[in-house]
Amino acid sequence: MKSATLISRMLMLAVPFAFIACNDDDNGDGPGDQVDTTPPQIEVIRPEPDEVRAIREHEDSRNLHFRAQISDDVELGEAMIDIHNAFDDHGHGKNFSPFHYEHIFDLTGTKDTFIDYDVVIPNTAVPGDYHLTIYVTDKAGNSLEDDQKNIEFVITNEHFGPSFTVNSPEDGSLFQFNDELNVNIEIRGYVDLEDIWMNIVHEGSGEVVYDFHRDHLHADPYVLNRNIFISEEWPEGQYEIEIEVELENGKHYHMHPHLHFSVH
Amino acid sequence: MVANTSALKKARLNIRFSALQPFIWMYGKLISAIKARNKLLPALLICFLPVTMQPVVAENASNSQLKIRGVVLDENLSPLGGVRVHLHETGETVHTDSLGEFEVAGLQPGSYHVHVYLMGYRSTAETVRLRSSNAQITFQMRPTILEMGEVLIEAQPYKLEDREKSLQVEVMEKEALKRHQRTSFAETIERVPGVRTISTGKGIAKPMLRGLSFHRIAIVDRGIKQEGQQWGADHGLEIDPYDVERVEIIKGPNSIVYGSDASGGVISIRTPSFPAEGHIRGSADFRAESNHELLGGSAMIEGNHRNTFYRFRYSRQEFGNLTLPADSFTYAGFRLPIDQNRLKNTGGKDQTFTGTVGMQREWGHSQLTVSHFDQMAGLFPGAFSHPGSYSTRHENGHRTIGLPRQVTSHSKVISNTKLLFRDNWIEADLGYQLNQRLEEGEPHQHGNRPMPEGTDHLDLQLHTLTANLRYHHTHNDRRRGIFGVSANAHKNRAGGFEFLIPEHEGADVGAFAYQHIYLSENLIANGGIRYDYGTLLSHRYTEPDYDAEGNEDGEIERAPEIQRSFSNISGTTGLTYHPSEEVTLKTNIARHFRLPRSPELASNGFHHGTFRHERGNSELNAEVGYQWDFSATYRKSNFLVTATPFANYYQNFIYLNPTFRFSRLPGGGQVYEYQQNRVLMWGGELVTEFHPIDPLHLEAGLDYVWAQNLDERLPLPFTPPASIFAEAEYEFGVTAVTWLQKNFINLNIRAYANQERVARNERVTEGSVLWNTAAGTTVNFSENTSVSINFQVRNLLDTYFQNHLSTYRKLNLPEPGRTYAISVSIPFHVMQN
Questions:
Q1: Three-class secondary structure of residue B278 per DSSP
Q2: Phi, psi (rounded to 5 degrees) for B188
Q3: Quick check: B334 and A150 CB within 8 A?
Q4: Partners of B354 in the beta sheet?
Q5: Which residue in B284, B262, B283 sits closest to B214, CA to CA?
Q6: In this predicted model, what pLDDT tens digit does every residue of B452-464 receive, in sequence order?
Q7: What is the spatial distance between Cα B581 and Cα B579, in angstroms, rounded to a whole number?
């Protein structure tokens, strides 16, 4: 778009009417006289993208943790979170009411604030994909760049969404080099599974020491069972097992087994 | 003698009866159309009948049969044949014979404007005063190869040459309108420097003049200001793109004649001229566009039988989803697909019927136009519905218009009459319009409220009655004037399960006087003053509140009752000076005004189209501003350059501004509130035309607008970026082929600068350079049968670009990619003298 910039410059020069330009003190260029047009900033810590919150019918409600750091250069205005379903048909079925939640936070008087807020997901919530949308304004009315920030998360229950049972290893296990690590996880989708990815990540460096991908599964459930040799090339320390699945319907999920082990 | 007269009267009566028949038929249709839903019928009949009947009575009184004779010569005093001579007041058109002579007979004493037109010559006009004897005039026409500034301006207050008007007026005529036709009328006129559109996909477009739109420009169709829901950024203009034969664009305030709303300018769609007596002719037009698979057409038939004329037109077009030069877009951190490069649910269709009947007699002329416009336009769900519902996959092909969508219709009944009164003319324009706007979308349950029934979010009905009366008087050759009154009454009804604007009604009346004085041969002054008074009643609106269990629990007031009245004095004065044939200088200063509308005073709700909560402000005052216009033109036989700078200061400009609040209504988004601020705008256009050789037309234009809220020191939203337009057009004939004499090829480029001057929360838009090309031919099958075929390629290089003035801009969506368009126009004669 260099040419466009050039043209815009040429245009500015060519405009012969600059003699009526009222460039007195109305441009807001004076020192300490800036017009606040900087939108507030937000960093969302939770929920993580594609986070799965599993509810079970007939059990207690689950909390969705909303954690965010919000700041503005002058003064914050309000923040609003809006949770609504992102079902394929946008939930227009008229016979059920997907979970919908809105909450407004008054942030006036602050420049920098941390929001830690738990949203109660009732156990009657219709499972599926949801969006958590965060809107933030500053006192002058500037809103978040792009108006909003969206985080997609998933509410599942036993009838919907992938779930898993970890048979091996146990969380917090200890291993030594040249040991064999058995990973055995049963993964269930509510429709057929298509792809499964598993990564073993070193928590200190973020290095992926082992990755596994299986496609064209057409299975539900699927038992992921791998025997993995812990070579001496692996760095020492804490590891986490991450799992992603893609279902036959094209949906992609980041599972959070919170499964850790150590190698020494 | 007595017997003779009564026989004559009898004969006349018969003619009169047949002349009235179309009117009677039309009223019959009108009655059945309106009966079902409206009680305004009696009022309508009272309004329209006297106007169409009265002239017939006047006819009886006439006994003078005067003539205007004349001769048209070229610069060497040789006679010019085939010159179109138009008598403005009676609407009559004749042509000169091979000796350059013409005659218009059967006239009553009075003053008449005689316009002469011939391709390749500068149009000119003379005022002729007929007293008791016939008049004889001689016109001398000067040749020109320039297209610009060579036309007569018909828009009120005067029918003058361009250089006699102190405000800049741009004209687009039939041929140019056809050559550059787009999906909507507003887009077609975007060609004119200083004109842009605020668009929502294709089909929905509202015109903008020098950065002003919404209620600040008046769209005038056949003398009546079009009234729809102009306050909405996503509300388009309801005009048939095929039915415009001539449009005049007045850049600058015209509050004097048009009252409130004309503060930023006027786009005036002129009544098409009628065929000569004894002719029946018509045309068929077809259009196709590749990008959104548009198919459209229009058929028209018109005739003139003993100076009783009629014209009927039906147009229809349908198009599918837009094709974009991108397969994804980024919004709110998400990269979202554009499935098959097509933007879901952006198709649309519209159709219009227009029928006119009228008569021209020695007392003047009168006509009645009935039109009905229907449109259904799909909206991209991601821009309309809840954010995150970016379901962009196509479900039912590319031509299905699903939800959300706008369904609009606009019905008009317009009567235009010019009556001879003593020596002068009275013009009366009466109009009734009904604008119906239905915004449909999937219902959503919000909070504890019950699930709404149906899909009608908003259902707005606006009825408007307009009457304009102008008395044109000619004191002498040096001084002419107009006295006018205008009145307007409106009523808005609102339905649908969402509340955005309240029901309201109001009326305003205005009176003005305007004078035009020739101070010397080359110095003309004009000035006018106007007083307006308006009242408005905006209804209270409440809705039930619900408790946690979903039971009704009290009520919430969404809009209070507001009763306001406004008055204002506005004025204008200008000078035009042409020291030589080559140079014209104009200047104009005006105080303009605008009455606040009910949506600005009392709206309070979620506006899906702009995705925010819009809230009115009941304290708003009438918007008043001052504008200075200047124009300098240098013109030689093959070269023209015009600079038209302006400066416009508003002491209380009304617009929507963001607040830091979020709507307490479920799903309501950020609250935007109407506020008033001091605003300064300046800018202008620079246009040049050059013909290095006769058939080669080179044109370049530049426009720029600077707009600033002086209180908040921030630019205004929807300020158009500067742009440059340049084109080369070559017209040629194929010498060997007699039926291929009129062909053209055109290459043009439009460059938009970056728009970095943005309002709060508006996005900076990068500039772009677009190439377009066009070619066309007129095939002469016989003397009277010629078919013209035009071919266009827009966005030739399939450039990815964003339009700062598109409501889809906030989603980072690009504008449509390359499109091929073809149009065929087949005029035909059924009968001629």
A1: coil
A2: -60, -40
A3: yes
A4: B313, B371
A5: B262
A6: 888 888 999 999 9
A7: 7
Residue of A nearest to B392 (CA): A88
Residues 6+ apart with CB under 8 A from B257: B156, B157, B470, B482, B484, B512, B514, B528
A10 pLDDT above the threshold of 60 = no
Among residues B785, B755, B759, B775, which one has the least CA distance to residue B767?
B755
Q: How confident is the model at residue B27 (pLDDT cuts 50, 70, 90)?
A: very low
Tell me if A15 and B722 make a contact (CB, 8 A cut-off): yes
Q: Are strands B135-140 and B66-73 parallel, antiparallel or unpaired?
A: parallel
- Residues within 8 A of B (CB atoms), A 72-111 only: 77-78, 80, 82, 84, 86, 88-90, 92, 94, 97, 100, 102, 104, 108
Token pair of A167, please? 């048979």
Name every residue whose Cβ is closer than 8 Å to that of residue B669 and which is 6 or more positions away in sequence.
Answer: A135, B606, B611, B612, B613, B662, B663
Q: Do A26 and B710 touch (CB under 8 A)?
A: yes
Q: Distance between CA B578 and CA B161 in Å, rounded?
A: 12
Residue B705: name the closest of B682, B679, B680, B678 by CA: B682
Q: Within 10 Å of residue B709's Cβ, how many Cβ atoms? A: 23
Q: Are strands B364-378 and B348-361 parallel, antiparallel or unpaired?
A: antiparallel
> Each residue of B544-581: pLDDT tens digit?
888 877 788 888 899 999 999 999 999 999 999 988 88
pLDDT, chain B, mean: 85
pLDDT digits (tens, 9 = 90+) for A65-110: 899 999 999 999 999 998 887 765 443 333 456 788 889 999 999 9
Contact list, A87 vs chain B (CB under 8 Å): none
pLDDT of residue A51: 80
User: Does an H or E element contain B823, and which?
Assistant: strand B819-831
Considering only CB atoms, which chain B residues are within 8 Å of A16? 643, 645, 686
Q: Is B57 exposed, middle or buried (0-12, 13-18, 19+ CB in 10 A)?
A: exposed
DSSP conformational letter for B799: -
Tens of pLDDT along B457-486?
Answer: 899 999 999 999 999 887 777 888 889 999
Three-state helix/strand/coil letters over B648-695? EEEEEEEEEEEEEEECCCCCCCEEEEEEEEEEEEEEEEEEEEECCCCC
Other beta carbons within 10 angstroms of residue B624's beta carbon come to 19
CB neighbours of B265 closer than 8 A, spacing ≥ 6? B209, B210, B212, B217, B218, B249, B250, B251, B252, B253, B254
Q: Rounded to an integer, what distance in angstroms lies between the CA atom of residue B459 and that of residue B456? A: 7
Complex ipTM > 0.85: no
* List of chain B residues whose C-beta atoms are within 8 Å of the C-beta of residue A11: 702, 704, 722-724, 753
pLDDT at A215 exceeding the cut of 80: yes
Residue B629 CA from chain centroid, whole number: 21
pLDDT value at position B300? 96
Closest by CA to B599, choosing from B495, B488, B501, is B501
How would you class B577 by CB atoms within 10 Å of its CB: exposed for 0-12, middle for 13-18, buried for 19 or more? middle
Using the structure block, give the residue that is written with the tokens 């009252």.
B259
pLDDT at B383 over 50: yes
Beta bridge partners of B566: B534
Contact A100 B445 (CB under 8 A): yes
Please state, as a whole number, how many other Cβ atoms lie within 10 Å of the Cβ of residue A163: 17
Instruction: Name the pLDDT band for B167 (thresholds 50, 70, 90).
Output: confident
Q: Does A13 touch chain B (CB under 8 A)?
A: no
Mean per-residue pLDDT over chain A, rounded: 78
Element (H, E) at B741: none
* Torsion of the alpha carbons at B240, B243, B246 and B248, rounded to the nearest 10: -20
